[in-house]
Amino acid sequence: MEYLTFALAKGRLAAKTLELLEQIGITCEEMKDKSSRKLIFVNEELKLKFFLSKGPDVPTYVEYGGADIGVVGSDTILEENRRVYEVLDLGFGKCRMCVCGPASAKELLQHHEMIRVASKYPKIAKDYFYNQKHQTVDIIKLNGSVELGPIVGLSDVIVDIVETGSTLKENGLEVLEEICPLSARMIVNQVSMKMEAERIKKILQALKEALKKCEL
Ligand code: PRP
Q: Which residues contact 5 (CB under 8 A, 6 or more apart)?
């Protein structure tokens, strides 16, 4: 039997995913050793491998077959636009993609003015402003702490993830428009979906049942 490899986005999503996999009897003891510098973890019994990577790399690994299955936020899936199958909404990691800024920027969005938009998600920002709002904007790519954009005068607004809203609040910003809801998704390599159909479908079915139980 070939190994099935999982790529998990580092951080909270990975921890939640491992909890969920445990519920369906998929464990990886090796991964629990936080002091380990190993990059890939194996469950020999089930013939499974796991690795953690930066979120934006998860769809890349899955598209090219470096991993058969990936778990990553739908924000990253939209931004990366890779050829993968999105097979399951895991329901956790819920947040929203929003246009945010100071209250004073609201008007700039209504009158379709040329504005500057800072974002870690230039593709999502471009798609929203160009294709949905039909507003020409200047998009500036940042790699984090995007809320700084309007604070230091780099941009008028930002396109970013809002979870609790506390980062915005503590920095005098607010949600101006909502683009879409987000959550953790499971993605599958297109070839693996055919070659390993039986094993992957079995995992998906078990996950769906576990998720249903969580809802009850
Ligand atoms: C994300 C996002 C916001 C914050 C939102 O940043 O970019 O800054 O979380 O969460 P909240 O609504 O609960 O305050 P992350 O922590 O991933 O770091 P980053 O700024 O480096 O992207």
A: 48, 49, 50, 51, 66, 67, 68, 69
